């Protein structure tokens, strides 16, 4: 059996034993995002997390290959280098930059798998047997896909938490940045 997968503009045949390095390289190329090193760090996290989630969601069965392989010198490493630069310039410690980059991976891997899960995770017959779960499930707006709402919530929560860490060492610059970022979201949203 041969399966053809379209990645980064070219077809890759997967038959029995496939070539993980080639597929991994093409996945990394598909995940590359142009990051402006002068952009605000919350916007960079949103951009990279959203782009990586969308890219991985196209081929969720290949996520284990990405998650279990070290990075290569390919186009996606430029994205990560630029994210590291933005976070460092914002004042995050080297350790926090490393953990923030890992956090983007953790969020996007989980969120891309969530995109292929059912919109309604809890069928009516399950909810009929619950009280709290049924109530909280009804509270979620139905006009936004559950996976999208959960992803946006998670990314914003992580940005807030990172902001708290940054605020410990740079109080004034962090508060200004959060106000500016929130104002930008209101204008575009």
What is the CA-atom radius of gyration, in angstroms?
19 Å
Class by alpha and beta content:
mainly alpha
Global morphology? globular
Largest beta-sheet characterization: 2 strands, antiparallel
Number of helices: 9
Helix content: 55-70%
- SSE order, one letter for each helix or strand: EEHHHHHHHHH
Tell me what you see in this structure.
This protein has 189 residues and is mostly helical. 66% of the residues lie in helices and 6% in strands. It has helices at 20-31, 41-57, 63-67, 75-90, 94-115, 124-127, 132-138, 146-169, 171-188, and strands at residues 2-7, 10-15. Strands 1-2 form a two-stranded antiparallel sheet. α4 packs across α5 (94-115), α5 packs antiparallel against α8 and α8 (146-169) runs antiparallel to α9. The radius of gyration is 19 Å and the shape is globular.
Compact description:
66% of the residues lie in helices and 6% in strands. With 189 residues, the protein is mainly alpha-helical.
């Amino acid at each position: 059996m041969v399966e053809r997968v379209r990645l980064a503009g070219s077809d890759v045949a997967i038959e029995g034993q496939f070539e993980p390095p080639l597929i991994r390289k093409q996945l990394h190329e598909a995940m590359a995002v142009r990051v402006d090193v002068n952009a605000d760090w919350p916007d960079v996290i949103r951009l990279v997390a959203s782009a990586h989630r969308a890219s991985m969601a196209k081929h969720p069965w290949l996520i284990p290959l990405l998650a279990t392989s070290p990075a290569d010198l390919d186009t996606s490493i430029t994205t990560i280098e630029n994210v590291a630069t933005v976070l460092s310039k914002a004042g995050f410690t080297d350790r926090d930059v490393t953990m923030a980059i890992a956090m983007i991976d953790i969020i996007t891997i989980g969120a891309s798998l969530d995109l292929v899960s059912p919109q309604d995770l809890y069928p009516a017959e399950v909810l009929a047997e619950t009280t709290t779960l049924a109530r909280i499930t009804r509270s979620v707006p139905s006009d936004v896909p559950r996976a999208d709402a959960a992803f946006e919530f998670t990314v914003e929560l992580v940005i807030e938490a990172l902001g708290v860490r940054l605020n410990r060492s740079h109080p004034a610059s962090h508060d200004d940045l959060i106000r500016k970022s929130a104002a930008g979201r209101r204008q575009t949203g």
